[in-house]
Write a structure and sequence with these properties.
The chain is α/β, with parallel strands linked by helices. It contains 16 helices and 11 strands. The strands form 4 sheets. The protein has a 5-stranded mixed beta sheet with strand order 2-1-3-4-5, with helices on both faces. A two-stranded antiparallel ribbon has the order 6-7. A two-stranded antiparallel sheet has the order 8-9. Helix 1 crosses helix 7 and helix 5 packs across helix 8. It is globular, with a radius of gyration of 21 Å.
């Protein structure tokens, strides 16, 4: 029996390849927790068949995948569905982190109309980040693969529609639904609601955690970034999103954080060694505003422009949906 594993980042892909659990492992690796979501037609194109385009990189699931199986699929312009149909079994391995969960519901929504692929597909839902464990662990554990059924598909399609909605209301309403078909989804719903600007401070949970760590004496940028075995144990947002958040707290009209040398946090910064070294060696401190926000005595959005995306919701100063963590409630602009 030939087996294909679909997973949702390079770390997970590397661990599962090393474990030798499948004939082929495909990482998708899109970012849905941060930034403006791509239009539905672009995401469909990403997974759909296409004609071979020599010499160029396009937005397609086969781009940047290397190996004989992928080279052949690329020549034939296969979509992901057509590639899946070449295997006897397809397993979706999903980390518990929100970005993997969002990719999972998107992918389940995509395969839902394709009964032949659904019939050979199963879900492996982990309670730890796959890439954090050595391949031998996954080879030994042999987690159960649950056949994908209508409950998985209906729950995923509903949740994906909610995340793409132009307000957070539908996403919040998921908390009143039975989400047990996808056991990590409820935690994801809550974690993402917590990233909305808080009622008292105008900052999300990851930003507030950065201020808390800085007040506790963690004064370098790397101390504030989420990650494995790091003081910031919030892993809702990834590396690049965390860097943008720190930029936003430090490089704005009324900073909450002082001392951040260099920026913006982008590829240009990472490609310039001296600039990147200055960034990493910055010694940070809370400003007066940062201290007031940490004490919940001031609101960041009263002093600074806000413009970012949360799922399909565009957050601006005059359209600032908020989260009340004390009452676990959503507050409209």
């Amino acid at each position: 029996m030939t087996r294909l594993i679909l997973t949702f980042d390079d770390g997970a892909s590397g661990a599962l390849k090393g474990a030798g659990l499948a004939d082929c492992v495909v990482p998708l690796g899109l970012c849905f927790v941060w930034g403006r979501l791509r239009p539905a037609n672009e995401l469909d194109t990403f997974l759909s068949p296409r004609a071979a385009k020599p010499g160029g990189v396009d937005f397609h699931w086969l781009d940047n995948l290397r190996g004989p199986q992928f080279d052949e699929a690329r020549k034939q312009g296969l979509g992901l569905i057509e590639f899946c149909e070449r295997f006897d079994a397809v397993e979706l391995w999903a980390d518990p982190d929100p970005n993997a969960q969002l990719q999972l519901i998107w992918l389940l929504d995509h395969i839902r109309p394709h009964a032949p692929v659904v019939s050979i597909s199963s879900l492996v839902q982990t309670d730890t980040v796959i890439g954090d464990r050595p391949p031998a662990d996954w080879a030994e554990r042999r987690l159960p693969a649950v056949p994908i059924n209508s409950d998985h598909l209906e729950t995923a399609s509903a949740a994906w529609s909610c995340w793409r909605a132009p307000t957070p209301v539908a996403w919040f309403d998921l908390l009143a639904r039975d989400l047990s078909a996808l056991p990590q989804l409820r935690n994801t719903v809550v974690a993402l609601l917590e990233e909305l600007p808080a009622r008292a401070t105008g900052l999300g949970a990851t930003e507030m955690r950065m201020l808390e760590l800085l007040a506790a004496g963690h004064v370098h940028p790397s101390d504030l970034f989420p990650g494995r075995q790091k003081p910031n144990d919030r892993r809702t947002l990834g590396y690049w999103a965390a860097g943008e958040l720190l930029d936003g707290l430090a490089h704005c009209p009324a900073p909450a954080i002082a001392g951040l040398d260099e920026g913006p946090f982008d590829l240009g910064l990472h490609d310039a060694r001296e600039r990147h070294d200055r960034y990493k060696n910055s010694t940070l401190s809370l400003t007066g505003l940062g201290k007031a926000i940490l004490a919940q005595a001031d609101d960041f959005s009263r002093h600074n422009p806000v413009h970012r995306w949360w799922g399909g919701t565009e957050l601006t100063n005059d359209r600032l949906w908020r989260w009340d963590p004390a009452n676990r409630s959503l507050i409209a602009p």
